[in-house]
TrEMBL record:
InterPro entries: AceGlu_kinase-like_sf, Ald_DH/histidinol_DH, Ald_DH_C, Ald_DH_N, Aldehyde_DH_dom, Asp/Glu/Uridylate_kinase, G-glutamylP_reductase_CS, G5K_ProBA. It comes from Salvelinus namaycush. In the N-terminal section; belongs to the glutamate 5-kinase family. SUPFAM superfamilies: ALDH-like, Carbamate kinase-like. It catalyses: L-glutamate 5-semialdehyde + phosphate + NADP(+) = L-glutamyl 5-phosphate + NADPH + H(+); L-glutamate + ATP = L-glutamyl 5-phosphate + ADP. GO terms for cellular component: mitochondrial matrix. One of its GO terms (molecular function) is glutamate 5-kinase activity. Coiled coil: none annotated. Pathway: Amino-acid biosynthesis; L-proline biosynthesis; L-glutamate 5-semialdehyde from L-glutamate: step 1/2; Amino-acid biosynthesis; L-proline biosynthesis; L-glutamate 5-semialdehyde from L-glutamate: step 2/2. Residues 54-312 form the Aspartate/glutamate/uridylate kinase domain. Can form homodimers/multimers. Its EC number is 2.7.2.11, 1.2.1.41. This is Delta-1-pyrroline-5-carboxylate synthase.
C-alpha cells in the first residue's frame, strides 16, 4: 500500500508542480526538455556539460541546514533548496539528497523539552523567580540525532508536498556499504525509488553510528570510510553512478588558502594533483567534515566518474538559485575536473593582462605608437591569412544559417576593409602621443608643495563584441594608445578570424615586451560569468545588439558598463525647415544604414507642416526607399486612412521602418524626446538659429545636432580615429567614446616633508592655491 501511494503521488507531481513553483522556475521547467537516457561512467570535462546531468546528488552540509545558533533548522534556506530540487526532478532528472540537520533539529527539540520540564519542577518547588537560574546539560549527539530524525524527515516531506513531490527516508551506516548483501539491497532500493520519481533523502544513522576514526581516510576507488556526510555523498554518488554531486557548504567553494586571509582566491576549477598547492582552514563549527574532507571526498567521487561542484548554500543572494545555476553550467563555486585545459584560465588571463598592462602604461607614447603602427602594417602584410580565416568563418556561418544578411555583412572582411582599418590605426597612433601621463592641471598648494592631476589608464577592460572581427584591431589599438590591459570576448561565428587578428596584435605588442597586455578569451566562459569578475575587471564595453548590451548591464556585478541599450534617435522637422535639407537629412538618417544605433527611429513633424508640399515630399521619399511607416497617436488622428498605429513610441526598429508623430512646437518635440528617447542622438532641422540653439540646449542626449544627419554620431566621423562604442551614461564618457574615454585621472602631490599640522592656526605655512600653466608634456 505504501508503494502504491508513493507511485500515485509521483504520477500526480508533474501535473501540478508548475502551478506551485515561482515564475522564474516555471519558465525553466517549460523551456527545458531533458533526455531520458543515462550514460554514466565519465565525469564532465567542462561546466557546460553539467546541463546533461541526469542523476544528481545534492549534499547539504550542517552549516547549510542549521541555523546560526546551532539549534534548529534554517527553514528559509531549506525551502529554497527544496524548490530547486523539485524543479530539476520535474525536468526528468533523478534527484537524491544527502542531508545533515538531524542533530540540530533534535537538539532544539530536547532543549525545549528540558526547559519545559525544569520550569515546571522549579515552579512547583522554588517559585517563578528561580527560572532564570536554569542551566542546560550538555546534550549527547546520538540522542539529539534520535530525537531529530523523525522531525527532519517530516519537515522535508511537508516541503516537498507543496510541489507534489514524494520523498523517502534512508538511514545508512558504514556497514551498509561494506556488507555486500546490504550494499546490494541499498542499491536496489534507491533504484526503485528513482524509477518511481521519488526523491530519496539519505543521512547517516547518527543515533547508532560510532564516532569517526580520526585517521581513517579514502582508500582508493573501492573503499571509502563513511565518517561524515561528505564521504557518504561521495560513496553514494559513485555507487549509484550519479552524473553530478553538488556539495553545498558555508563558503563559496575551494580557496587556495583559508577564506578570509588576504591572499585567498576562489578556485574556479580544481584538478587532481592540485591539492598540494592549497592550505585548508578550520572546519565549520556545526559540521564534522571540514573543507579538507570535502576535497578528498570530491576527488574520490571524481575518480569514480562523478562530476563534483562545491558551492555556497548559505548566502541569501544565491541560495535561491545556486543548484539550478550549477546544473545550467554557470560559474558557481569550485568545479572539479580531470581535464586540465592547455591554456590559462580566464582569471589567469586577466591577471597576466593587468601585469603587462601596467608595463604598457609606462612606455613612452612613441613606443605605444610604434606598436599600433606595427599592427597596422601586419593587417596589410598578413591580409591573405586574415582573409582565408575569415572565409572559413563565412562558410561556416552560411551553412549554419543562423546569421541574418546584415550580420553576415558585418562578419565579412575584404582587402579594402583591412586597408581602411590600417589607416584608422595609424591615426590612433598619432593621437596616442597626448594620452597617458598628460598633466591636466597643476596647482601650487604652498611653497614647495605642488599638486598635479594627470591622465592614467582605467585598468583592465573587457570588450564583448558580436560578428565584427574588425572590432578587434580597432579596440586593441585604442587600448594600447591609452595604456589599458584588454580582455576580448568575440562571437564564436568569427572564431578563426579573431584568432589570427589577436595573434597579430600580440606580435605587435611583443616589440616592446608587453605581449600579454591583450588577451582573447577563447574558453567556454559564458558572458554572464565574465561579468562577475568584479575584482579583476574595471570596465565592460559591449559592442553588439541592444539585447546584448541589456543582458550585460543586467549581468554585470559591480563592474561599470559603458554603452547604450537602445538607440531611439529622433529627427524633428521644424516649421521653418528648408525642404531640401529636411529631405536629405531624413533619408540619410533612416536609409543609409537602418540597423545602426544612430539611425533615425522616430520622425517628429511640426503640426504646421501637415498637408504642405514638404510633408508630401517626405512621405513620397520614404515610400520610394521602401520605409514602412508607423503612425503615432496624434499623427493617426489627422489621417482618414492612416498607416498602422505604432504599438509603442519607444521602439528601436533597426530596419527600414520608422514612426511619424506630430508635435505642436519645438518645446513639444523636446518633451517628446525626453519621454520616449534613449538619450542617444537627436536632430533638429530648421533655419531659425534661435530655435535651434534652444533645442540643442534643452535636449539631454549624448549627441544633439542641428541640420545634420543622425548618422554623424560616430567616433570616426568625429575625428576620434575609432571608437569603442557610444555611451548614453551620465558619468565618465558620453557619446562616441574614443581614446579620451578610456582614460581616468589621478592626483600627484610633490612636497618636501610637509605636514597638515604646519597649516594650522599655530603653524608657519599658508595655503597659496595658485594655478600653474601646464606645458605640453611630450612636445612634437
Amino acid at each position: 500500500m505504501m508503494l502504491q501511494r508513493l507511485a500515485l503521488c509521483s504520477s500526480l507531481r508533474s501535473r501540478s508542480l508548475q502551478a506551485n513553483v515561482c515564475p522564474r522556475f516555471a519558465r525553466a521547467v517549460s523551456q527545458t526538455k531533458f533526455p531520458v537516457t543515462h550514460s554514466p561512467g565519465k565525469s564532465a570535462a567542462h561546466r557546460s556539460e553539467l546541463r546533461q546531468a541526469k542523476r544528481i546528488v545534492v549534499k547539504l552540509g550542517s552549516a547549510v541546514v542549521t541555523r546560526g545558533d546551532e539549534c534548529g533548522l534554517a527553514l528559509g534556506r531549506l525551502a529554497s533548496i527544496v524548490e530547486q530540487v523539485a524543479v530539476l526532478q520535474n525536468q526528468g532528472r533523478e534527484m537524491m539528497i544527502v542531508t545533515s540537520g538531524a542533530v540540530a533539529f533534535g537538539r532544539q527539540r530536547l532543549r525545549h523539552e528540558i526547559l519545559l520540564s525544569q520550569s515546571v519542577r522549579q515552579a512547583l518547588h522554588s517559585g517563578q523567580n528561580q527560572l532564570k537560574e536554569m542551566s542546560l546539560p550538555v546534550l549527547e549527539a546520538r540522542a539529539c540525532a534520535a530525537a531529530g530524525q523523525s522531525g527532519l524527515m517530516a519537515l522535508y516531506e511537508a516541503m516537498f508536498t507543496q510541489y507534489s513531490t514524494c520523498t523517502a527516508q534512508i538511514l545508512v551506516t558504514n556497514l551498509d556499504f561494506h556488507d555486500e548483501q546490504k550494499r546490494r539491497n541499498l542499491n536496489s532500493t534507491l533504484h526503485e525509488l528513482l524509477r518511481m520519481n521519488i526523491v530519496p533523502i539519505i543521512n547517516t544513522n547518527d543515533a547508532v553510528v560510532p564516532p569517526p576514526v580520526p585517521n581513517s581516510d579514502l582508500q582508493g576507488v573501492n573503499v571509502i570510510h563513511i565518517k561524515d556526510n561528505d564521504s557518504l555523498a561521495a560513496r553514494l554518488a559513485v555507487e549509484m553512478k550519479a552524473d553530478l554531486l553538488i556539495a553545498l557548504s558555508d563558503v563559496e567553494g575551494l580557496y587556495d588558502s583559508p577564506p578570509g586571509t588576504d591572499d585567498a582566491k576562489l578556485i574556479d576549477i580544481f584538478y587532481p594533483g592540485d591539492q598540494q598547492s592549497i592550505r585548508y582552514g578550520s572546519k565549520s563549527k556545526v559540521g564534522i567534515g571540514g573543507m579538507e574532507a570535502k576535497v578528498k571526498s570530491a576527488l574520490w567521487a571524481l575518480q569514480g566518474g562523478t562530476s563534483v561542484v562545491i558551492a555556497n548554500g548559505t548566502d541569501p543572494k544565491v541560495t535561491g538559485h545556486v543548484i539550478t545555476d550549477i546544473v545550467e553550467g554557470k560559474k558557481v563555486g569550485t568545479f572539479f575536473s580531470e581535464v586540465k585545459p592547455a591554456g590559462p584560465t580566464v582569471e589567469q588571463q586577466t591577471e597576466m593582462a593587468r601585469q603587462a598592462g601596467r608595463t604598457l602604461a609606462t612606455l613612452h607614447p612613441d613606443e605605444r605608437g610604434e606598436i599600433i603602427c606595427r599592427l597596422a602594417d601586419l593587417l596589410t602584410e598578413k591580409k591573405d591569412e586574415i582573409l582565408s580565416a575569415n572565409k572559413r568563418d563565412m562558410e561556416t556561418a552560411a551553412s549554419a544559417g543562423r546569421l541574418s544578411q546584415p550580420l553576415l555583412a558585418r562578419l565579412s572582411l575584404s582587402t579594402s576593409k583591412l586597408n581602411s582599418l590600417a589607416i584608422g590605426l595609424r591615426q590612433i597612433a598619432v593621437s596616442s602621443r597626448d594620452s597617458v601621463g598628460q598633466v591636466l592641471r597643476r596647482t601650487r598648494v604652498a611653497n614647495n608643495l605642488e599638486l598635479e592631476q594627470i591622465t592614467v589608464p582605467i585598468g583592465v577592460l573587457l570588450v564583448i563584441f558580436e560578428s565584427r572581427p574588425d572590432c578587434l584591431p580597432q579596440v586593441s589599438a585604442l587600448a594600447i594608445a591609452s595604456g589599458n590591459a584588454l580582455l576580448l570576448k568575440g562571437g564564436k561565428e568569427a572564431a578563426n578570424t579573431n584568432r589570427i587578428l589577436h595573434q597579430l596584435t600580440q606580435d605587435a605588442l611583443s616589440i616592446h615586451g608587453v605581449k600579454d597586455a591583450i588577451q582573447l578569451v577563447s574558453t567556454r566562459e559564458e558572458v554572464e560569468d565574465l561579468c562577475r569578475l568584479d575584482k579583476m575587471i574595471d570596465l565592460i564595453i559591449p559592442r553588439g545588439s541592444s539585447q546584448l548590451v541589456r543582458d550585460i548591464q543586467r549581468a554585470a556585478k559591480g563592474i561599470p558598463v559603458l554603452g547604450h541599450s537602445e538607440g531611439i534617435c529622433h529627427v524633428y522637422i521644424d516649421s521653418e525647415a528648408c525642404i531640401e535639407k529636411a529631405i536629405d537629412i531624413i533619408k540619410d538618417s533612416k536609409c543609409d544604414y537602418p540597423a545602426a544605433c544612430n539611425a533615425m527611429e522616430t520622425l517628429l513633424l511640426h503640426r504646421d507642416l501637415l498637408r504642405t508640399p514638404l510633408f508630401d515630399q517626405i512621405i513620397d521619399m520614404l515610400r520610394v526607399e521602401q520605409v514602412k511607416i508607423h503612425a503615432g497617436p496624434r499623427f493617426a488622428s489627422y489621417l482618414t486612412f492612416s498607416p498602422s498605429e505604432v504599438k509603442s513610441l519607444r521602439t528601436e526598429y533597426g530596419d527600414l521602418e520608422c514612426c511619424i508623430e506630430v508635435v505642436d512646437s519645438m518645446q513639444d518635440a523636446v518633451d517628446h524626446i525626453h519621454k520616449y528617447g534613449s538619450s542617444h542622438t537627436d536632430v533638429i532641422v530648421t533655419d531659425n538659429e534661435k530655435t535651434a540653439e534652444q533645442f540643442m540646449q534643452q535636449v539631454d542626449s549624448a549627441c544633439v545636432f542641428w541640420n545634420a544627419s543622425s548618422r554623424f554620431a560616430d567616433g570616426y566621423r568625429f575625428g576620434l580615429g575609432a571608437e569603442v562604442g557610444i555611451s548614453t551614461a551620465r558619468i565618465h564618457a558620453r557619446g562616441p567614446v574614443g581614446l579620451e574615454g578610456l582614460l581616468t585621472t589621478k592626483w600627484v602631490l610633490r612636497g618636501e616633508g610637509h605636514t597638515v599640522a604646519e597649516f594650522s592656526e599655530a603653524g608657519s605655512m599658508k595655503y597659496l592655491h595658485e594655478n600653474i600653466p601646464v606645458p605640453q608634456r611630450f612636445p612634437s
